[in-house]
Amino acid sequence: MGFVIAFMTGCRHCKECGEYHQGHSNNLSDDDSGTDELQDDDISDDDLNDDDSGIDDDSIDDDTADDDSPSDDDSSDDDTVIDGFDWTKYTGSPAPGMAVMAAMSYDEMRQNIVLFSGGTGLSNETWLWDGTQWTKAQPTHSPAPRIGHGMAFDLAEEKIILFCGASIILYPRDTWAWDGNDWNKITTAHSPSGRAKFGMTYDRTREKIVVFGGCNGNPCENAFSDTWVFNGSDWSQVSTSNTPSERISPYMFFDEKLDKIILFGGLNDNGDLGDTWSFDGENWIQLLDGSKNSPDPRNAGACAYDPNRQRGLIFGGEAGYMDFRNDTWQWDGHKWQRLMPENAPHERNQTCGAYHRDQDHFIIFGGFFATDFLPMIFSDTWIYEYED
Predict the structure, then answer these.
(1) Cβ distance 117 to 105 under 8 Å?
(2) What is the pTM of this model?
(3) Which one of 110, 180, 183, 309 has the largest count of C-beta atoms within 10 Å of its C-beta?
(4) Spatial contact of 151 and 160, defined as CB atoms under 8 Å apart
(5) Shortest CA distance to 299 belongs to which of 199, 219, 387?
(6) Which is nearest to 197 in space by CA: 177, 178, 218, 220?
């Protein structure tokens, strides 16, 4: 658990001065040298020593969590919307254990959400959410345990792609594909530099995975502002005339109505960010500066795209040091609107989310919350869906 806590707080806490801040940015153009390699990755679950140390969501009264209204934020110019949706907590079993900085993505071919890794002791477990319950997968091969990685479904390849992340402060620079039964490592000629806490999503029109930003170092505080795309076999860097500032843990999804990738927020030397950008495959354009029609500046929450209502969704995050949020927002293609469900999960950051297109709901899993005295790592699943 110590590694996970240190990794999460490293981008705000300076060991030299004792103050919390982002650290040092790194706007270098990435080379293709493989200096951040982790020893190879065909690891079975039996090789891992499961560590469930820490405090999970059971330390919080479930009734309190279920009745918890979304936390206040300071946005004064936002619209509020009651969309008929509400959050409900999944109480079934089996279910994944405590996790922070895990990743998940919806598999459109197999119609389930795939969750990989995260945890307190690091894990390489793969779990499948079919819309009603979790099932632990039993792949023959698996990526090494990690946190802060990215996952996205490649519609052209009909596979989920996983990239990089951090494992004991090492950044493996590896790319893996999930075919519904097993993980297979993809050998690429080029790759982004090793990193964690980056934005990653699939561009459905240009049929490429897109990665932006992230960080590396020990702790993870060297932030990037580069854009990379994966075409199913190799990575290439996109040179853009305009780009968002370097940042870690942004929210990123593909807007099917605008036919562009949307990026919101993140964290860098200047603190939490509240700007919104679009990417059309060639260049970034700033849509909103965060001064209005936007959530409070924040990082490290969950996001996904609701294709049935053509809206982006974000949940929670951290809007300043230990200012954890549990609010839900939608992106309508032009502005952000705060949603007003009756219930909400506990405040948290470092959670992950995905949208189940077949079952028509947004889910989040796990995450982190802390007071000055008590860190909490969650193992809960929450479902945001229409209430009949």
Answers:
(1) no
(2) 0.85
(3) 183
(4) yes
(5) 199
(6) 220
